[in-house]
Structure formats: C-alpha cells, structure tokens
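Please describe our next protein:
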Amino acid sequence: MKIDFTGKRALVTGAGKGIGREIARVLTECGAKVVALSRTQDDLDRLKSEIGCETITVDLADAAAARRAAQGAGVIDLLVNNAGIALLQPFLETVVEDFDRVMAVNVRAVMVVSQVIARGMIARGKGGAIVNVSSQSSSRALVDHAAYCASKGALDQLTRVMALELGPHQIRVNAINPTVTMTPMGELAWSDPAKSGPMMARIPLKRFASPRHTAEAVAYLLSDHADMINGIMLPLDGGFLTT
C-alpha cells in the first residue's frame, strides 16, 4: 500500500520535536508539502534544513496568535493537530494557571486552528482530512496527570463533534491515541524506571511506542486508504487498553 500526498499541503502543529517532527518527516516522504508550526524557531530551522518545509513560529496558548498562524498557513489539505504540553502535578497541587495553559494548548488551540483550516476546506469544496494527536490518558487515569488527562479526554470529544459536523463537507476527522512515547516530553514523565516499569508491565507488547509508530498511523488516516474512517479514536498502545 503506497501513500501518496503529491500535490497536497499539510499543516503540522508542534512539529519542532518528537512526534510532530516525525510526522512532518513522514508526510514529506509521502510527497506532501509540509507547513511546520512550533513555538521554537531553532527547532523549525533545523527541520526546514532537513526536509525543506515551510515554517511558522507561534505559541498556541495565545488563541489570537494561533488563529493568525493558521490563516498564514495558506491553502491546507491535511491538518495534524499534534502540539501538546504536559505540566505534571499531583491533583491536590495542580495550579490553576498551569491547568489553563495545558487546556489552551491541548484543546483550545485544536479548535481555533481547525476552525480556520476547515473553513478553507469548505470554501474550496474538495473536502480534506484532520488528525488530532490524543493519548491513551484520555481514557485511563495517570498519577500526576490531572490536567493532561482532562485535556486529552476533552480532545477526544472535540474530535467526535468535529467528525460529526464536518463530515457532511467531506472533511474526515480522527484521533490517534498513543501510549507512552519516548520523546523529550515522554522522557521527562517516564524516565524513572520505578515509574516506567509498572506502566510497561501493563502493555501486552512490553514496550513503549516510538514517534514513527504515530507518524505512520497519522499518514494512513490522512490518506485516501482511510476514506471511510471518520470519528475514531485509534489506540496505538500495544494493547494497554485491553488490560
């Protein structure tokens, strides 16, 4: 099965590091012209030198700036809402400002960026595809992850509503829900063997995911091979949710 995005433009948020960087790389390998969005210019400069993408620097926690960035991306056929942050705190010590920032980046920015891109898709009348990068934590509670778990649960529901309302315009919307992935953010949360060991023990495959796993699943859901897939939350968890 060959995935060919030749002639397509794809916007990838959070493309500077980790999963987003690998998504940008895979979509480029499939022929897409990638517009990479991140808050760190140095990361974007390195990515541009590697894959030849367009770049936009923005902090998605700023709703107005997120909207301007999406508008500045131009014509977009494929959207990947990958940007996300995790500010880890015990529930009783969760700070309101940190909770709000996590929700702003992980949920509100998805709404804002997707509104802009979907309106463009509707105006052109050719449909499109959107993938939101969620997490297994949308349906399983994790210690010290109150804000993160809440944000990913909200993202799953936002994905379902987007699929319902955008489907009639031939815009498919799906989510990917990975297990622990060894990105810089993943290493921050799971580098301690005392913490990662019990988590890995709950995964039947006995291993964590790599960014490539998510990137290839995203490419599939964006492609015409997934033309009748709309509104799903695809676990990419090695069987974690079966335990």
In short: The chain has eight helices and seven strands.
